[in-house]
Amino acid sequence: MTIDPVLSSYSDMLFQGTVVVYLLAMAFYAVEYVSARSPKVAEAAEVAQPAAVAAGSGTADLGIVSAEPASMVGSASSASADVPVPAARTPKPERPRRSRASRFGRMAVSLTILGVLLHVGSIALRGFATDRWPLGNMYEYTSAVCLAAMVAWLVVLQRVSPTSKGVRRLGVFVLAPVLTLMVLAGTVLYAQAAPVVPALQSYWLVIHVTTVTLATGLFIVPGIASILYLCKRAGKPARFAEKLPAQETLDRLAYRTTVVAFPMYTFAVICGAIWAEAAWGRFWGWDPKETVAFVAWVVYAAYLHARATSGWRHVGAAWINIVGLATVIFNLFFVNMVIAGLHSYAGLG
Amino acid sequence: MTTAPPAPPQTAPDPPKRTPAALAVLRNAWRGLTSMRTALVLLFLLALASLPGALLPQTSLNPQLVDQYKADHPQLSVLWDKVGAFEVFSTPWFAAIYLLLMISLVGCLTPRSLEYLRAMRQRPVATPRNLSRMPHHAVDVVDGTPAEVLDRLDGRLKGWRRTRTEDSVSAEKGYLRETGNLVFHLSIVGLLLAMAVGKLFGYEGQVIVLANGGQFCNTSILGYDSFRPGLQVDGTNLAPFCIKVDSFAAEYLSNGQPKQYRAQIGYQSAEQVAGGDTSTWQNYELSVNHPLRLDGDRVYLLNHGYAPRFTVTWPDGRQRTGEIQWQPVDTRTYLSQGATKFERPGIPDDATGRRSSIAITGLFAPTSSGGQVVTSTFPDLLAPEVAVDVMRGDLGLDDGRGQSIFSVDQSKVDSGELARVARENLTPGQSITLDDGTRITFDSVDDWVALQVSHDPGQEAVLVFALLMLAGLFLSLSIKRRRFWVRVTPAADGCTRVELGGLARTDRAGYGEEFDRLRADLLDNTSGGER
Fold it and tell me: Nearest-CA neighbor of B145 among B488, B502, B505?
């Protein structure tokens, strides 16, 4: 188990490259966001796409009147968001010239894809350099969380963007926290490539930490969607909120990503318990990390329940989702770096 | 507690019957407790109540940290102590929250399960009169008589539960969602019960064994250095297996980070011991992440350390050799401290003998820095050295009070009954000669290992329930409950007007795509097949 310093330095270089590309991508998303016309102007200008706008405002009204049974409101609003699909798609071939916003947006997506490729390279080389699964300290872990978030974002673009207007320009809000984490990882958390302590030498590291990383990265997307949802709903700040996608779109984005991340997180926690049984002598011992993971799990469970409770379905649920993300981030940093526990593998000492 | 009250809610919806006031209060309390809103609040409380468990040091995990915290925040910790914040997970208020949550859960699940069983046998609802009011809707005209068209469409809706009338088909799909939902929630109850079994009948014991053939048998609590019994464990009926630790090996990186710990052990199962076969040992390599699973218990390698061996030779030629574990004080360098104690043999007078006991106390460095002040620079045994004080006098071993094996009784030093007679640094083989001619030799160093024996009869069940939970969660989050309707009416020219309606009954969006697919599939093929 020797360290290959050359591969390790290549990995570091790729990491830096990734940060630069993400930064560029974020700038491009930002340009797209800023130069996007607000819906009112757009409605006046583009007669071709009234359906999506109408659907957006329509569902907002429907959502407020929630005296109907849960299933009715949920399906009705989701339906109206689905309806504009053909309407929004048809005008595309008729407008060969794309707006500046759209051009920048497309470039931003290409850059994101490039960034993700570099990122994968950086993490893979780190693994080859240390001859182990590259999730052994806070630097590697944070980097992988960011990768998971970016991949989740690309999947969202692939799945949601075609049917909902204005999702792509949210990229700037996804990249901002991801870049913050990346810079933190590259500076404060950075650790030299090294083998891991005996307790981590288990195939459960691959299963448990990878799924935790994936779930954590995934949770970033709904957390941001919920923050934006609250902005949009409150309409504040006005000039900022008017360019956001429809409330319904943001809410659906938050829900659909959470619904993927939550079972994955559950699986990760269960794997952690199985590993703890082999490594520490008990499957659950209220170690600080375990405790906060439990808290996060309960918060996300509360989110799913809130979505089915009248009076909590909208603002309440969004706040709970944000609290959930805060808990997960807290667990990632504070618990590893400040609180002494069995999970103190930060590699910062 | 959980089964008696559910009766009122079921009989409640009769308005003419007036319920007595007391019963009404009970009923309302029960309804309130089992409502989703209460469950939500309880979930929050549970999350909030767990937080101190992570933010404050916990006695069950790290008593030293708790003491440290109490010393740093004397006033605050009085308050924390009163509310039990240092042992959150065994406080009554934490238990109250999760018990209420469980009651709420059972109260919510019972009617829901009954409803589920009923719904499983029920036919899909009648087709609504006005399908155009459904969120998903489509109309088309196809060839064929209404009856033919309906036959065809009905045949295409395989996999849907459907009910057919003269002019319509009502279909419903996604019943597994509710199945998953119930499995998930019932598994939570099962998981908690299984965990409770573990808390009642499980135990955890820790013991330090010298890694030079030292043995340990799981026959009684007395064999352990520390023992944490479950509520129903009295220390009898332990599985009496035996462990013999032959050797211990640690590998380190050049920076002192441990790479691998391994202990070569032999074991005898309880059955073997009971059968009287105590001479053969099965070999096992015990390492981190690879516990020994034996007789329903697990044996773990928790920690290791060093035990310096000393020989004391008194002027009369009598010799005693002592070796006991010293405690690592620095987990990076394994600088250890301890006290190896000797009572002088061969003195008929108890009092005199007691007064001439010897204790060797001080520091041990596996890789010594050298020099006057000994510290350790590396955790491996490369250049061992001890820096010891030799104390002579009354150790107080017969006082009837317990004392630490890692230090001498300070009160004996303070009272002058125990006095330092030498201070020296020794490497293996070196010795000190005291003023009375007693010779103390530092012979060698052995490893010790800390083993933990864990017993938890509930943990397999916990795993099963956890996996069921996961499966249920997956089903309930990935499956959509949705309805689909077809109505046919005769149209001109022997054609049929087909009207489709769709309704997703659950939160999850995305039925629109499926509906469009269904529509395309049903209508296009229908008309295509005719032409």
Answer: B488
Q: DSSP letter string over B153-185?
A: HHHH-TTSEEEE-SSEEEEEE-THHHHHHHHHH
Q: Which amino acid is at B100?
A: L
In this complex, the residue of B39, B255, B510 whose CB is nearest that of residue A305 is B39
B34 phi and psi angles, rounded to 5 deg: -90, 5
Domain chopping of chain A, boundaries: 197-349
Q: Residue A302 is nearest to which of B44, B55, B88, comparing CB atoms?
A: B44
* Helix, strand or coil, per DSSP, at residue A269: helix
Distance (Å, rounded) from C-alpha B289 to C-alpha A276? 9
Measured in residues, chain B has a length of 531
The residues facing B425 across adjacent strands are B387
Q: Which residue has the tokens 């910790």?
A: B77
- CB-based contact (8 Å) between A2 and chain B? no
Percent of chain B clearing pLDDT 90 (strictly above):
36
> Smallest CA–CA separation between A315 and chain B, in Å?
15
Closest of A284, A286, A153, A132 to residue A209, by C-alpha:
A132
Mean pLDDT calculated for residue range B236-246? 89
- Chain A to chain B Cβ contacts (< 8 Å): 170
Cα A94 to Cα A76: distance, rounded to the nearest angstrom: 31
Region label for B317, one of left (φ > 0), alpha (ψ between -120 and 50) or beta (otherwise): left
Chain A residues closer than 8 Å to B258 by CB: 197-198
DSSP strand pairing (B431-433 vs B439-455): antiparallel
Q: Say whether residue B466 is in contact with chain A using an 8 A CB cutoff.
A: yes
Render each residue's pLDDT in chain A as its tens digit; 349 residues.
Answer: 577 888 889 999 999 999 999 999 999 999 888 887 765 555 454 444 444 433 333 333 333 333 333 333 333 333 344 444 444 444 444 455 667 788 888 899 999 999 999 999 999 999 999 888 888 888 999 999 999 999 999 999 888 766 677 788 888 999 999 999 999 998 888 888 777 777 788 888 889 999 999 999 999 999 999 999 999 998 878 878 888 888 888 888 899 899 999 999 999 999 999 999 998 888 998 888 899 999 999 999 999 999 888 888 889 999 999 999 999 999 888 877 777 666 765 554 3
Q: DSSP assignment, residue B343?
A: P
Type of residue numbered B334: Y
- Residue A152: helix, strand or coil by DSSP? helix
Architecture of the domain defined by B123-174+480-530? 2-Layer Sandwich (3.30)
pTM of the predicted model, to two decimals? 0.83
Break chain B into its structural domains and give their ranges. 7-119, 123-174+480-530, 199-304+452-467, 311-443
C-alpha–C-alpha distance, residues B306 and B334, integer Å = 8
Of B423, B390, B418, nearest to B403 (Cα)?
B418
Residue B36, burial from CB neighbour count under 10 angstroms (0-12, 13-18, 19+) = middle
Give dist(CA A92, CA B512) in Å, integer: 21
Question: What chain B residue is nearest to A306 in terms of C-alpha separation?
Answer: B40
